[in-house]
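ugh ok fine here u go
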Amino acid sequence: MGTRSACGRCENLSIGRRRLRAGLWTGLDSTLPSCGDSHVDRHERNSSSSGKSCTPRSSSRARKYVARREGPMSTTRHSRRASGPRAALQRGVAAIEFALVFSILFCAIYGIATFGAVLYIQQVVSRAAEDGARAIAYSFASSKFQDADRAQIKATVVSSLSSALIVPNSEIDPRQWVTDHVDIDPRVVEAGLEKTGVVTVVYRYSENRLLPSIPFFDISLWMPDKLTGQATVAL
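structure:
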């Protein structure tokens, strides 16, 4: 029994020294008992001469102890930390970051869509004014610009506007909606011997927005109240 316990100490000491040299665990030397260098050398010589290996029970116990200190203990601690309050805190930070980024992106997309809608309406109004100016050139046959000609030009402008996307889908009669919300002014201007047909179309944008305004990001101050399109034609 004395030989087996001594061999166990030597085995433990040999394992601790090998792991200490490899840098795997630095705390084994302080916990394992020391047998002295002479006893270790004598035991190694005896085991080499006899050709038998010493496998005491305490060596397996030391290996299990070292394995517990190195692997599973640290893994369990890290897993507990990852699933504890720190993980919940990280999830909360991620939610806050998402809310901030989403609000910025939403405001940017809303601004782009609003300015795009204004640009589209301006193009529609300008095109309708050009259609009315061409109608003046076709209908003007005398020196006087009569009321019948004016009504025909207005009908041309209304037809051009009602075919665009500025009319709400809920409206049954798009032409009536355009007549109620858009101001159309066709006229003939005389400057000496020259006559010029002028058509002015005014769209009241502040009353008829394509996109609704949002309370915390109102850009109505940057938008015009009216969008005007004007076209001229020489008669």
